[in-house]
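@channel sequence for tomorrow's demo:
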Amino acid sequence: MNELNLKQQAIKTIDFQKDKRYLHIDYPLNETVKKALLMRWLDPKLVAKHRWLPFIQYNIKMQKYDGHIVHVKLRKITLPSHTDGWLFKFYAEMLNVKYEDYLTDHHLQSVPIGYRKHHSSLLGAKEVIDFISQQPSCWIIKGDFKNFFDNLRHQLLRDQLSKVLYGQSQPLPADWYNVITGLERYRFVSRHKISALKTDGVHGSYFKNFHEYNQAVRTKQLHVSHPNRLGIPQGTAISGALANTYMIDFDEQADQLAASYKGIYRRYSDDFIVVVPKQKADFKQVERFKQQLIALAQTQLHLEIEAAKTKTLRYENQQIYQGNSQRPTQLNYLGISFSGKKVTLIDKSFYREYYRGKRQMFYLGLYSNALRAAQQGYGPQWLAQVPSKYHQAAAMALQHIERDGINNVPHRRSITTRYLPIRPVHRKNFLDYAMKAQRIFTANQNSIAYQVTILHDARRIIAHEGRYLHYIKETLK
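structure tokens (generated this afternoon):
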């Protein structure tokens, strides 16, 4: 398939609707503008001349759960401009086609799970757990690549990209070179800094036009970073496809190593797992295999697999054990927990849902009671009876209701849909995800050798949220 045909095919398959909404230097694109840009980008010379705007970068707090909140981790978010993001998406569509062809030609269709159409973490987890449960006993190696996206080497990425596109390592054509350079050598501005410069009365962008943006840069009101030198940003439409492309040689060699022991190797982004039947390898051989993977990642990819964090597990007699010991444990893989006998979601999924839901139930109960008190004219009396530990929150809720003339609990419908669902709502509540996971893991039920309690456990969490809401309403009467 030549380049023009590949682009025309990408135009047919690209999703015009699925866009993130965020403020940037440019304005969001409507469908007419998107189509016009795609027609323009059929000419590779125009893509080669495309000028890139800085990304916008900021951090969000990620709470890590383990029975309680353990710590808060900062996650870096890097957003391309709307036009740049659309160009990345267009070229990602083309790369995905070539990448799937490459996997087929090299018999690797089953190996990478992430960032591929018609693949999901749930399907990937089921395949691995089914393979484990079908063995009398087996070894499991589970690990990840440290700071994966941040450490991808640019020259190696370009070499691997040319292999996927053209079957050999060669200089990239000017359009692909500009696209990959726009991602690798990206510059960014701070969202905190650019937010302070937002033009009043302008919607959809931080600036009225590019002249205002250029003026802010020239007068040093807005600092643009130096070009990036290592790694790529994680959140663009093409980042996942490029990360998979970077791994093609490693995936092939790791898959061949696993196959030599009649086992399997699978990778989801920076997480990998190897399963080897116990009759094909003893513990020393499996540890040697693990060291081979660590060395291969270092020499071939310039990436680190931390030996201390790479686990060796054993499946035997329908139980998961730590290494060669008799200490029982769980296999946690792609959000699924497998004990050897039972499949459910990993603990932190339930804890995350529990703590988020608990906060929302408190809010819902507090505002429901405050609203009733305000509407029936006994707000001050209600506030005086609220327990002291809730007094400040109750006072703020009552003030908000009275000041803004609120007649309904804000966001009540979205909260109940999310945390107190009667029925699943596609991609909008925990129940939907749990039912989907339950359905996937109980498919071909006659052939599986484990119990699936995902839906049962999820409903317990939802029931707990309902009880907590009742408790808050009774406490804050």
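heads up for whoever presents: Residues 214 and 315 are 61 Å apart (CA to CA).
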